[in-house]
Queue: 3 jobs
Job 1
Amino acid sequence: MGNFFHPMTEQASRTLRQCICCAYAIEKGERYCKQSGVWEGDYCTNHYHTACWAALLEEGAAFEFTPGEGDPPEGSRSMADARAALKSTSPDGGSHG
Ligand SMILES: [Zn+2]
């Protein structure tokens, strides 16, 4: 069984996600790079900041980086900060069953 990856796609995020490269938040509505495929028999999907992915490509390290150790793009927030911000902007916590 070989490894297989779909082509990278770029789209606006419909929800809060975490960049696998820098581990910082990809905010709702922010454009990000998404790649899915099969790696050593397991299906996986990775999300990257567009800037993180561009930097990895530049370094030629697209598949050889340590997750969470990349430099976050300027202005990025940690997952904890982004989650807190989402909560504080939801009028009623967003729970409707
Ligand atoms: Zn990132």
Job 2
Amino acid sequence: MQLDPKFHVSLQHRVRFTRDAFHPDNSAFAAICDGEPNRRMIAFVDSGVHALHPDLGDQLANYLGARSRLGEVVPDLKLVEVVAGGEDAKNSIDVCEQVLAATDRCGIDRKSFVLAIGGGAVLDAVGFGAALAHRGVRLIRMPTTTLAMDDAAMGVKNGLNKFGKKNFVGTFSVPWAVVADERFLTTLSDGQFLCGFSEAVKIACLKDPALFDQIESDSKQIVQRDLAVSMPIIIRSARLHLDHIATGGDPFELQEARPLDFGHWAAHKLESMSGYEISHGDAVSIGIALDCEYAVGTKILARRDTDRVIACLRALGLPTWHPLLAQTDQLVRGLEEFREHLGGRFNITMLRSIGDSVELHQMDHKIVAASVRALAP
Ligand SMILES: NC(=O)c1ccc[n+]([C@@H]2O[C@H](COP(=O)([O-])OP(=O)(O)OC[C@H]3O[C@@H](n4cnc5c(N)ncnc54)[C@H](O)[C@@H]3O)[C@@H](O)[C@H]2O)c1
Ligand SMILES: [Zn+2]
């Protein structure tokens, strides 16, 4: 007897970009979580966000009380918990345990909500806890960094770092919704604000030459943190990530190609080699520069295109070099770790031109080393 049924599950992403999400006149957030009564919510706020937005819990409670039926069912419960912000959130199981304990204590059922407010790391760590509690409660992500808005919050996965390896632990899990409030971007440091544009450059290089031109020509205003110029780029990048996940045919990464991870094999390795001192956004910028040099070294990409990409990253104030790159033997171990993480055949996405890419199934370590030397200051 052999039984091999195939079945499909229909999933939906809900993404909203807004400003002042908890203003009583703003209906976007309430519309996402209202519908049926007797649902509960617990929010987890990134400690870095909490420090600069200490009244967020009150704003959320007032908003839900005024606009949502949710507010009526949680008056005695602590609505907001602060969790470790930054990569620390992913380097231990603590945030996940905090989410599990709170979902238990607050009676969060599978139709109730866990709200994660923070950078990509907090979204990943809280999302992991939310995916485990009752085998998955509804997760609303509220990204508060550039990178979380233009990439991380759109993903359908979560993760923790373990055994010195980035995202070794995690699950695929589609969030209930994403509500991005651009007001959060105003409290980021310049470095945090800019590093998220590396993911916008990445997706533009892969899929949208016009977006690349736009980032290139708007780089000065982006560096000056002009949100009128920056937000359309952030939203376009988010949309391209979202479209790839929703319509690319492989949301749970069962196939070999992982184009959204262009530049990421070296990025992930550099992050772990630095003890997560290098931010993900900065590491991705270096990883993109390295792979573009590699593509020139293997005659896949024209020198002119690589120079443009590297100049664009630098114009955004992003790094294209780190002294750890010089530890090439250790760096190239990241290639095998990347293959293990993907499973199956070795597969690395490389640019063929700005807007077009190709999959490689092997990389020459000597050309990687030469590419490192080409980037050295
Ligand atoms: N799940 C996915 O699909 C996916 C995709 C891309 C990236 N990621 C992950 O996202 C993480 C990187 O996220 P990130 O770049 O947002 O960095 P981050 O989450 O590490 O946050 C950086 C710092 O900014 C602080 N912060 C957050 N919001 C703030 C605000 N509004 N004002 C002031 N400070 C604030 C945080 O406390 C932290 O110290 C990485 O772990 C990466 O692996 C996940
Ligand atoms: Zn990334």
Job 3
Amino acid sequence: MFLHACTACERRQLIFPSQVTSLDNTDHGIEVSFTCWCGVEQHLLTGRAAATPRRTPAAA
Ligand SMILES: [Zn+2]
């Protein structure tokens, strides 16, 4: 269960596991797909990889 701000209905609502339609492990993190209470499919990127800031090469 997590809080999500929907891009369609613009509401912040709790999303329950029963609303999750897929979980995908990607190089960028865990991509969670779920259906909002308004019926629109939403996506969320989570996990350690998503939280880690991108490292940029140091300017010399
Ligand atoms: Zn919504």
